[in-house]
């Protein structure tokens, strides 16, 4: 089919990849799902993110467990039974049935334990802070995966539309080639070339359909709903730093993996102090009140009350404490090395995504120029073929080059958006706090404040 005979609908479809609005749209904007609203759905319902939030609430209770060491313990002890006693003393029968019973209250309070409670609390708090950063990293990963799957659905949909339009064009091209063959203008070779190109185009449609189905499945996994009426995605350039050095500086300072690693160092240092505390004396006080009945003689009762102080000074217990201290110190060294490793990983990730974003920007510009040049070239080749200066194969090749250029443009536009999100993720700012995701932010501190000072209660703050 030559250029001048194409229908307006076909010409419009073939220009699908020349702009983001045309190439990466599934439906009109009136009822579209936006990238931001898709991220909001992922933020609220992604199971991986919700599981990480639950784990953060689990770690909150570690602080309440550690703080319990400051508080007293109390217990009520009750005993009851039956005792039969017998004997004879100076002609007196001593047989009697006793029903001994006692009830008592015991209260213990630790006054000093080598600062173990202090350091256990510090270690638990560091664990909470580390898990909060892990939660923030999970949030960033979920949002990035959602953005990536959103853009993949858009680009795969646009690519499939281009492939289908290409089949329509090649079908018309084959029809015209056969007509020209019937009147002797071209050879059987030209017909075979058109048939082969059409068969390949149909195979490409099948592959594009498969890729789109895969992208839709991943979208459903990440966002939680099927993709419907997706609006074009926009790059997150307003949160991308001005240059690479600034991006690295922000990332090393704010990335949650870096902060989590340093909190892990703090927790390991606190654990050393906990084990060192086992070498210190322990001082505690115990108060006890007890009421007893029939202990030795039937129908008798008595009570006792006491307050006792206890001081325990450890001397030697086989060397276990010393080994634990040495072991904990080595763990501190390991955590510090791991923190430096994480910093290097974050730096490398920032450089990687920065380079990909810059390359995607360049590819968009180059692909747009390539599409325009190939459009001009295809029009020229078709006109030359009409007057016998070009073969059918020349037309097919020019048309394939234009199709490839348009597909490359779609890919470049997709990467342009995805890698802008990748840079923001790499520096540690792809969260609802920094981005325009229309959703109420989850605050892990709210649950922490609810449970850290609870003295009793088995219900969680949400009523379970």
Automatic annotation (TrEMBL):
GO molecular function per UniProt: efflux transmembrane transporter activity; porin activity
Coiled-coil region list: 160-211
Pfam families with a match to the protein in the record: OEP (PF02321)
Principal place of residence: membrane
Localisation: Cell outer membrane
InterPro entries: OMP_efflux (IPR003423), T1SS_OMP_TolC (IPR010130), TolC-like (IPR051906)
UniProt xrefs under Gene3D superfamilies: Outer membrane efflux proteins (OEP)
Family stated for the protein in its record: Belongs to the outer membrane factor (OMF) (TC 1.B.17) family.
Protein name: Outer membrane efflux protein BepC
Classification of source organism: Bacteria, Pseudomonadati, Pseudomonadota, Alphaproteobacteria, Hyphomicrobiales
Gene: bepC
């Amino acid at each position: 089919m030559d250029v001048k005979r194409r229908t307006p609908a076909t010409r419009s479809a073939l220009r699908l990849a020349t702009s983001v609005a045309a190439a990466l749209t599934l439906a009109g904007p009136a009822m579209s799902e936006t990238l931001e609203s898709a991220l909001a759905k992922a933020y609220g319902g992604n199971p991986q993110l919700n599981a990480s939030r639950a784990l953060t609430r689990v770690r909150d209770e570690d602080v309440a467990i550690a703080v319990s060491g400051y508080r007293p313990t109390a217990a009520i002890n009750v005993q009851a039974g039956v005792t039969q006693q017998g004997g004879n003393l100076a002609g007196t029968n001593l047989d009697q049935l006793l029903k001994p019973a006692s009830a008592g209250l015991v209260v213990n309070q630790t006054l000093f334990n080598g600062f173990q409670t202090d350091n256990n609390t510090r270690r638990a708090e560091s664990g909470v802070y580390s898990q909060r950063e892990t939660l923030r990293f999970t949030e960033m990963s979920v949002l990035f995966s959602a953005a990536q799957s959103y853009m993949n659905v858009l680009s795969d949909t646009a690519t499939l539309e281009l492939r289908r339009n290409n089949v329509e064009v090649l079908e018309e091209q084959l029809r015209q080639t056969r007509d020209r063959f019937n009147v002797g203008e071209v050879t059987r070779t030209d017909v075979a070339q058109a048939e082969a190109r059409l068969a390949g185009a149909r195979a490409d449609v099948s592959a594009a359909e498969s890729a789109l189905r895969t992208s839709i499945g991943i979208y459903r996994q990440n966002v939680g709903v099927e993709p419907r009426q997706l609006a074009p995605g926009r790059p997150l350039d307003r949160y991308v730093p001005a240059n690479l050095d600034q991006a690295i500086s922000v990332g090393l300072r704010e990335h949650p993996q870096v902060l989590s690693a340093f909190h892990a160092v703090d927790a390991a240092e606190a654990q050393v102090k906990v084990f060192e505390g086992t070498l210190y004396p322990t001082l505690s006080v115990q108060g006890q009140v007890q009421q007893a009945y029939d202990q030795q003689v039937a129908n008798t009762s008595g009570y006792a009350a006491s307050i006792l102080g206890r001081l325990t000074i450890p001397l030697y217990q086989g060397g276990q404490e010393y080994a634990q201290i040495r072991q904990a110190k080595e763990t501190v060294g390991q955590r510090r090395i791991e923190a430096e490793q994480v910093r290097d990983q974050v730096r490398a990730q920032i450089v990687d995504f920065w380079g990909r974003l810059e390359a995607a920007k360049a590819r968009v510009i180059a692909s747009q120029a390539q599409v325009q040049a190939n459009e001009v070239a295809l029009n020229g080749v078709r006109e030359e073929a009409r007057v016998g200066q070009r073969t059918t194969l020349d037309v097919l090749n020019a048309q394939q080059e234009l199709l490839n250029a348009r597909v490359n443009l779609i890919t470049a536009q997709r990467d342009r958006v995805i890698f802008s999100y990748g840079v923001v993720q790499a520096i540690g700012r792809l969260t609802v706090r920094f981005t325009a995701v229309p959703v109420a932010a989850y605050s892990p501190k709210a649950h922490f404040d609810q449970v850290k000072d609870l003295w009793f209660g088995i219900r969680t703050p949400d009523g379970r």
